[in-house]
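User: Before I run my own analysis I want an independent prediction to cross-check against. Here's the chain; please return only the structure tokens and, at the end, one sentence I can use as a sanity check.
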Amino acid sequence: MHAQYPTLRFRGETYNPGEMKLAISQVLQLIFFGGLVVSLVGRMVLPEPMAKFLESNQMIVLGACFLCNILAGNLLNTGAFEIDLNGEPVWSKLDSGRFPQMEELRASMQGVMQQ
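Assistant: Structure tokens:
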């Protein structure tokens, strides 16, 4: 594309998944890291019944922590591949559900440039 359009500048940026998904993801990350700390260090500082619970259910607790981490990552993963030219949309993976073929992208860019 750069060879065909040498004057165009291409840049990429992170697509915002939305404030709600971002907030939920941050809470899940806090649960993940907090759970890891409690699971690994908590037996020394927690009351004995809780420490025994952690000791007998350590795999379940760690599994729940890592599940929170996976969910947080999935909330942030939009799969976006959005291309615009001077504010005009050229291609949207969110709308089409797929990446463009090079010829489709060229034709779409030509159409936007001719407007």
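Sanity check: The radius of gyration is 23 Å.
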